[in-house]
Structures are given as structure tokens and as C-alpha cells.
Design goal:
6 helices; 7-stranded mixed beta sheet; about 250 residues; Aminopeptidase
Length: about 250
Amino acid sequence: MRSEADVAFRIEGEDRKGRWLVTCDHASNRVPGWVNGGDLGIPAEDMARHIAWDVGAAGVASQLGRRLDSPVILSDFSRLVIDPNRGEDDPTLVMQLYDGTIIPANRHIGPEGVEERLDRLYRPYHAAYARLAALRPDRVIVAVHSFTPCLRGRAPRPWHVGVLYSHLDERFSKPLIARLMAETDLCIGDNEPYSGHLPGDAIDRHALRLGRHNTLIEVRNDLIGTAEHQAHWAARLAPILTEVLEGL
């Protein structure tokens, strides 16, 4: 039987020697059985789309960790259960409505219900994240996410890859954007499709507050729908990340 910590996250390659820590905050769309019987009350097709997880991001993160010879941590619960990329006091920590879909199991959740999800999922994930990050004093965090090509009722998003960062630390992300923009076949988002500064999020908590080099990479999810495509993007990004870090 897996321990309680095991159902909150997965770690790959903890003993790898690389400087990076690859993270995937929205790796899974799993709803634990103790959360409303394992069902948030929305259709399976909604649980399969971006509102429940970052489609394809886990595969990219896993492959990227192998290529960078560095550990990977992946969440093992849906962002709709509780979002590990939000601060504990963020009003979007447990979403009740997302991209036009009402989340029935979250509509009437109270403080005790939120606290249980924090204790059983969110906090174990962040404790493991912090432990892995601290294994090297020169750790660099690269967070892997994905974004949908189009939100309901919104304009299509043209970017293949977005690089997100906070204005509080642009040291790694700005050179990374410049390097990616040299790839003439790519449309690169500079803090697109949304800003990378969110107080209390995972990068803020584990990188900004501790002065660690960091970046957040968003890949458009229609580009990473298969294991082959995920491996392709990891193979493309790994040498670019390494090159940028060596140039700092």
C-alpha cells in the first residue's frame, strides 16, 4: 500500500547528479477516493482537458529530467482538487468555476474540507519539493506546464512556448527567451499567455524567496499530446536550457 505522501506526488531520479530540479505542479488529473468518492461531479471529458491538469506536461517534465540528469517532482492530484501552484491563502486554491465549467464537489467546500486537502496533498507535495530543491546549494528550478490553444470565448493563442517569470528575478528567463526566439520556427511568449508573477505560487515559494535561478516553461498542449511529441520537446529544450545556464 502506498503511503499518504506517495499519493500526493511522484519523484523520479532523486539521485541524479544534475543541478536542475524539474517540477510539474499540474501533472495529474487524479481525484483521490477520499475526495467526494473520487469524483468532482464533472464529465470525464472535462477531467481530460486543461482545467483538471496540464495536458502533456508530465511527459515533457519526465523526459526533460532524464536529459538534464536531474530529479523530477510531479504532483499526483488534479489541480481542481487543490492547486499546488497557488498560495494557501489564494482565493483560486480550490476552484469552483473554471473556463465555463462548474465544479460541483467544490461549490460548498468549507474551511475544514480545504484544510484536509492541504494536509493530505498540497503540503506533502511542497515539503518534498523543498527537500529536493535543498539537496544542492546551486539548484536551478525549471517548472514545466502546458496551456490550452484557446480558452472558451477567447482568441486563439499563437505561441508554441511561453516563458513565465517574475519581475523580481529575470536572470534566467530573459536570456532563455532571447535564445528561444533565435529558433526561427517558433513563436515564443514573453510572460505569455499570462504573467509569471503570482505571490505564493510554487516558484515564489521555492525559488524567488530563496534566490534560486528559475524559470517556468509553458508548452501549448496540442503540441505535446503524445509520448513521442513530449520526448521531442524535451530533446529540443534540454540543450537550450543547458546553454543558457552556462552563459550566466
